[in-house]
């Protein structure tokens, strides 16, 4: 074997090992436990799990809801419900969560935040830009029964109004320095603002910065 091939072979093997490590570390999801699978199915379909068994990467579940029995299959790695089959007790099978997601995805753009099974419909929350839509989807046909929307308001810091009055601020400043009031100004901030009270006495002249909510003297500037 030529000597120059050895470094190339070493590099190829190192890359293969690194790729295998990354795939197993970051892309192989931790499978959910049997308890978690039961909790997820009962939460989504508002029913009761009567039997569960694991087959390879899937849980096979028997679920009862409103007098009907369903066979449910859920992927242990992705939590996706891959099959929902009516076994007995009803004439028409429910749509699966995956089917509902496809119906909503074809109906409108946006990110599906949640899919919740109610007594008579699926409640689906979809977020698109600054709008959140709530869709009611028929359990069996996938028809959109109704929709409502809420506009998301951007979080903005709200200015807190001052609690103490201008006269109270003056009294606080006069307790620090006896004299005459030259001026009073108010500056608005997000935490309640502050007063600037200028007091002139025989020997001193000072500006007191007084918090508009607590009345605390924040600073004193001598002139």
From TrEMBL:
Stretches that traverse the bilayer: 5-22
InterPro entries, A to Z: PepSY (IPR025711)
Keyword match Disulfide bond: no
Sequence ranges assigned to domain PepSY in this UniProt record: 31-81, 95-147, 164-220
PROSITE patterns tied to this protein: PROKAR_LIPOPROTEIN
Domain of life (superkingdom): Bacteria
Keywords recorded for this protein, A-Z: Membrane, Transmembrane, Transmembrane helix
Protein name per Swiss-Prot or TrEMBL: PepSY domain-containing protein
């Amino acid at each position: 074997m030529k000597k120059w091939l050895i470094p190339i072979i070493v590099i190829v093997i190192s890359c293969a090992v690194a790729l295998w490590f990354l795939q197993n570390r970051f892309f192989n999801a931790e499978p959910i436990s049997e308890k978690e699978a039961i909790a997820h199915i009962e939460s989504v379909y508002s029913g009761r799990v009567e039997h569960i068994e694991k087959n390879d990467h899937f849980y096979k579940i028997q679920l009862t809801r409103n007098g009907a029995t369903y066979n449910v299959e859920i992927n242990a790695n992705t939590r996706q419900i891959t099959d929902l089959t009516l076994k007995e007790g009803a004439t028409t099978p429910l749509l699966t969560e995956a089917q509902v997601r496809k119906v909503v995805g074809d109906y409108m753009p946006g990110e599906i935040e949640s899919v919740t099974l109610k007594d008579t419909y699926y409640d689906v929350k979809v977020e698109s830009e600054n709008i959140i839509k709530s869709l009611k989807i028929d359990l069996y046909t996938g028809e959109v029964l109704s929709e409502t929307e809420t506009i998301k308001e951007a979080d903005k810091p709200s200015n807190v109004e001052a609690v103490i009055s201008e006269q109270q601020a003056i009294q606080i400043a006069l307790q620090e320095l006896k004299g005459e009031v030259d001026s009073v100004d108010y500056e608005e901030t997000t935490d309640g603002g502050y007063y600037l009270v200028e007091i002139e006495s025989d020997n001193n002249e000072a500006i007191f910065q007084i918090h508009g909510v607590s009345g605390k003297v924040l600073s004193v500037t001598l002139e």
